[in-house]
UniProtKB/TrEMBL annotation:
PPR repeat residue numbers: 9-43
Protein name: Pentatricopeptide repeat-containing protein
Alphabetized UniProt keyword annotations: Repeat
Keyword tRNA-binding: no
Keyword Repeat: yes
């Protein structure tokens, strides 16, 4: 996107992150979330909820794998 002169906006990041989470690409979603925050953007309420839920699920799964 940026290469073509169209920098992402807050809405763009949130939409892509939600899509990644919904497609079970949690690692990519988290990396994009960090990149988004580094660039001065913030997640909206629904995206933040998805991320928090995913972190809880991952922590829950880790307790069984340990």
């Amino acid at each position: 996107m940026e290469e073509r002169g169209c920098p992402p906006k807050n809405c763009t990041y949130n939409t892509i992150i939600r899509g990644l989470v919904n497609n079970n690409e949690k690692s990519r979603a988290m990396k994009l979330n960090w990149k988004m925050v580094e660039r001065g953007f913030s997640t909206d309420a629904s995206t933040e909820e998805l991320i928090v839920d995913q972190k809880r699920i991952m922590a829950f799964i880790d307790t069984f794998e340990s």
